[in-house]
Amino acid sequence: MRRTAGPPPLKETTFDLTPEQRYHGARAVASAANDADDCALLLAVLGLEPADGIADPPPLPPRPGG
Asked: How far is CA 33 from CA 12, 16, 18, 39, 53, in A?
């Protein structure tokens, strides 16, 4: 029996997150984690650090017309 080749592997895509995205991502992970170990694992998988969610969030951009 012949096996057909599967789809080609996907290219890895890398991009940098903004400090605001890192902050909100770390906070979302922390709020959804079951415990500290779960939080640490999820942050590591996403490439985030616990400190990303501790720092003050970046300032909001100015409002249009303001």
From this structure: 27, 24, 22, 5, 14
pLDDT digits (tens), the chain, 66 positions: 566 777 777 677 677 888 889 999 999 999 999 999 999 999 999 999 999 998 776 677 788 875
For residues 48 and 22, the answer to whether their CB atoms sit within 8 Å is yes
Start-end of H helices in the chain: 19-32, 36-46
Q: How far apart are CA 48 and CA 54, in angstroms?
A: 12
Coil, strand or helix: which one is 46?
helix
